[in-house]
Every structure is written in structure tokens, then in C-alpha cells.
Amino acid sequence: MTAHGTDEAQHELAHYIDHTLLKATAGSDDIRKLCREAREHRFFSVCVNSCWVPLAKEELQGSGVRVCTVVGFPLGAMSREAKVFEASTALSQGASEIDMVLNVGFLREGRYEEVQEEIRQIKEAIGDALLKVIIETCYLTDQEKVQACRLAVAAGADYVKTSTGFGTGGAVAEDLQLMLEAVEGKALVKASGGVRDAATARAYIALGVRRLGTSNGIEIVSGNAPDSGPRSGSY
């Protein structure tokens, strides 16, 4: 492939990537670095914890890179009111996309109306901003994954997303295919957790995934393999 062709291929992949840093130890300098990388590589967005939204918004001003934040993260077990407040506050501070964790315990207990209503209220609070619902596939049966996707669609979510990156597993092709079928084209699908190389990224995109959450975005677009070994809380 020519250098020009390589640049085009890298940009194509970059446009799918939410460049992510959600570690508890992240500080201001880490967020600024994340934003510089997002500008340089033209990632679709940065995904940060909500306390960093104002800084990310400032750092990305005029770049075209969006600010995405997480709500109810990483457990999804906060009160509905807390999640709605966190989402609306993040939006007012400069976020344009919200990745919320649904209440996994409620879902597994069959409290579907409550799960759906929480998603609906968050979507209502953020209006036209994109809402992605993290269903945390590693804790669910296939039937529960399908149910979670259907509830998210019924509540008006724009995306369903596999994982927080803090659970016991991340995105796998079988779950992504199941989710794509469950949403029936009424929502998009985001893969996150364990997306660490270009081959995996391209395979998921070929399945129909339209966003990738990863802390390995630079490795993906450059074609370099990430460091081996466990990565606590990494996308």
C-alpha cells in the first residue's frame, strides 16, 4: 500500500474510534495528552470520566473531535436520579455523547420496566446528544443481552455497547452479531473492551459495528501491536 493509501486507511479506522481514558488514576496531564492524540490522529471522540469533560472540551475546541463521557460508570448501580443528573450536567459542560451503564442487577432480576424507564429518562435529559447504553455482556446470558438491546431501543437509545472495560470480559464477535440482530437496525452498536489491534477493529467494522471504544487507538491506526499483559480497566 502506498503512503497515501496508508494514511487514508488509518483515517478510515480513526473515524470509528472513541479514544478512551477512564482509569481512576488519570490526571489533568493525562487528559491533555489524550486530547492531543485525538487531534493528531483525528479520532471521532475522546471518552473520559465526567469530571474531565470541561477540560476535554477546552482542549478540543475547534478540532472537530467530540467529547464523550460515561454515566453510572462502571457498575450501573447508582440511583436513576443520580444518573440523570450526571448526564445532564455533563452535557451542559460540553459533552456531546453519553455512554451510560444500565442497571445490570435490575435487568437480571427481570425489572425491565425500570431499566427501560431509566434509559428513557436519560435520553430525555440529553435530547439530541447521542446516548449509548452499555449492557456489560460479560455478566449476561444471550437472552439477557437480547433483552437489554430491545429495552435500549424501546427507550430511544442511539447505540448499544458491549462493555465498560472494567468487567470480566469485553467485546467478542458472537456478542456483537447477537446485538446487531437484536436492535434490528433501530440503533447502532459499539464494541469496547479488548479492541487492541487493527485486525480486530476491521473485523468488527465488517460485522456492522459503527464505533469502537479503545485505549489502544494509536496502536490500531499505526498498525503497532500494544504491549502484552493484563490491562486493568483498559478498553
> How many domains, as an integer?
1
Sequence of secondary-structure elements: HEHEHEHEHHEHEHEHEH
* CATH top-level class: Alpha Beta
Number of strands: 8
Q: Please estimate the helix content.
A: 40-55%
Explain the layout of strands and helices.
Layout: H1 3-14, E1 17-21, H2 28-41, E2 45-48, H3 53-59, E3 66-71, H4 80-92, E4 97-101, H5 104-109, H6 112-126, E5 130-134, H7 142-154, E6 159-161, H8 173-183, E7 188-192, H9 198-207, E8 211-214, H10 217-222
Parallel strand pairs: 1-2, 1-8, 2-3, 3-4, 4-5, 5-6, 6-7, 7-8
Helix pairs in contact: 4-6, 6-7, 7-8
What does this structure look like?
- Keywords: Cytoplasm, Lyase, Schiff base.
- With 235 residues, the protein is an alpha/beta fold.
- It has one domain: Alpha-Beta Barrel (TIM Barrel), CATH 3.20.20.
- The chain is built from ten helices and eight strands.
- The chain has an eight-stranded parallel beta barrel, surrounded by seven helices.
- The longest helix has 15 residues, at 112-126.
- It is globular and about 45 Å long.
Key features?
single chain; 235 residues; alpha/beta; TIM Barrel; schiff base; DeoC; lyase; cytoplasm; Deoxyribose-phosphate aldolase
